[in-house]
C-alpha cells in the first residue's frame, strides 16, 4: 500500500505528532510519499525516514499509484488535496491539526486507529459533490472546480456590485450585494453558514445560493437541485471583481461570463465508522448543549 502525506506548515507543537505518524506508518510497512514542500517543513523539526519519495502534482500521485492521501492540518489544507486527487477517485483522510474542522475530523489521538482502519478497509467513503466553473475566459487553469463554494465578490473597498443570475438559462434575479456564494452541501458549513445560509446534509443533492450583505433584505438564500446550471453576469462601478473557488481567487472584469454546474467527479472522503455528519455538527456547533451559566 502507498499513502501520500500532504500538509502546509508545521508548528513546533505539532512536530512530535507528525513524527509519531511517520514512525507508525513505518511499523506497518506502508510505502509513503510526501509532498516535497511539506517534507521540507518536517525536516525543520524532526528527522523523518530518509527513504521517503516525494511528489508535487496530480500526475505524480497517479503515477506512484497512491491508494490514499492523508491531509495534515485543517479544512483549508484538505481543500488543497482536491487538485492532487482530481478525478482519480483516490480517497482522502483529514487529520485535524487545525481548529474547527468539519472535513478534517480525525483527531491526533485517533491516528493509529485511522491508519489501521485504512489498512483493513474498515471505513466508509463519503462521496462529496464538487462544483465546476466554465467561463468565456480561462480561469483557474485545470483546477476549475471546488469542494466548498464558488463566489463572486466586490474587490477591495469598492461599492456593492450587481450580479445577474440565471437558472438553467432562465433569468433568476439580480443580486445587489457585496457578493454571492454558490455552495455545495459540504461548503454549507463554511462561508455559506457565516452569511446566514442553511446547513445542508451532504447527501441532499442540492446547491445553495447565498448573497453576501444584500442591499435588499428580502433576498434570501435559495436551495436548488445540483443538476441545475447557474450562469452569471456581473457589473459595478469598479472595473475589477473577485471570483473564487474555495481558497483560490482570480480577478475578473465585467466581460467575463460564468456558468457553474456539478462536476463530473466527486471527492471520496474517508470516514471512520464511529463518526458521521450529524455527530460532527452537534460537536462542532455545540448543538443541544445548555449554554446558560
Offer a quick outline of the entry.
This protein has 8 helices and 17 strands. The protein has 293 residues and is α+β, with helices and mostly antiparallel strands. The protein has 2 domains: 120 residues, Probable inorganic polyphosphate/atp-NAD kinase, domain 1 (Rossmann fold); 134 residues, Probable inorganic polyphosphate/atp-NAD kinase, domain 2 (Tumour Suppressor Smad4).
Describe how the helices and strands are arranged:
Layout: E1 2-7, H1 15-27, E2 31-35, H2 36-42, E3 53-55, H3 58-63, E4 68-73, H4 75-80, H5 82-85, E5 92-96, H6 111-120, E6 123-135, E7 145-146, E8 149-154, E9 161-167, E10 170-177, E11 179-183, H7 191-194, E12 206-212, E13 222-225, E14 230-235, E15 241-245, E16 248-252, E17 258-272, H8 277-285
Amino acid at each position: 500500500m502507498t499513502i501520500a502525506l500532504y500538509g502546509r506548515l508545521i508548528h513546533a507543537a505539532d512536530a512530535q505528532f507528525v513524527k509519531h505518524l511517520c514512525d507508525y506508518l513505518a511499523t506497518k510497512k506502508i510505502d509513503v510519499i510526501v509532498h516535497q514542500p511539506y517534507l521540507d517543513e518536517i525536516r525543520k523539526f524532526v528527522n523523518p525516514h530518509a527513504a521517503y519519495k516525494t511528489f508535487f502534482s496530480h500526475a505524480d500521485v497517479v503515477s506512484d499509484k497512491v491508494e490514499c492521501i492523508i491531509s495534515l492540518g485543517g479544512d483549508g489544507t484538505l481543500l488543497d488535496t482536491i487538485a492532487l486527487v482530481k478525478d482519480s477517485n483516490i480517497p482522502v483522510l483529514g487529520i485535524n491539526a487545525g481548529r474547527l474542522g468539519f472535513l478534517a475530523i480525525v483527531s491526533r489521538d485517533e491516528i493509529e486507529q485511522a491508519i489501521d482502519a485504512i489498512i483493513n478497509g474498515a471505513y466508509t467513503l463519503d462521496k462529496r459533490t464538487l462544483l465546476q466553473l466554465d467561463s468565456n475566459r480561462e480561469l483557474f487553469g485545470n483546477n476549475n472546480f471546488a469542494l466548498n463554494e464558488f463566489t463572486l465578490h466586490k474587490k477591495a473597498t469598492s461599492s456593492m456590485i450587481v450580479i445577474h443570475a440565471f437558472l438553467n438559462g432562465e433569468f433568476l434575479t439580480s443580486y445587489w450585494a457585496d457578493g454571492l456564494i454558490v455552495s455545495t452541501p459540504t461548503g454549507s458549513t463554511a462561508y455559506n453558514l457565516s452569511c446566514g445560509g442553511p446547513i445542508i446534509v451532504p447527501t441532499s443533492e442540492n446547491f445553495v445560493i447565498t448573497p453576501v450583505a444584500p442591499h435588499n433584505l428580502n433576498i434570501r438564500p435559495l436551495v436548488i437541485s445540483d443538476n441545475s446550471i447557474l450562469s452569471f453576469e456581473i457589473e459595478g462601478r469598479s472595473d475589477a471583481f473577485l471570483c473564487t473557488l474555495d481558497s483560490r481567487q482570480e480577478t475578473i472584469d465585467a466581460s467575463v461570463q460564468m456558468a457553474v454546474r456539478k462536476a463530473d467527479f466527486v471527492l471520496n472522503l474517508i470516514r471512520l465508522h464511529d463518526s458521521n455528519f450529524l455527530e460532527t455538527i452537534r460537536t462542532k456547533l455545540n448543538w443541544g448543549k445548555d449554554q446558560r451559566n
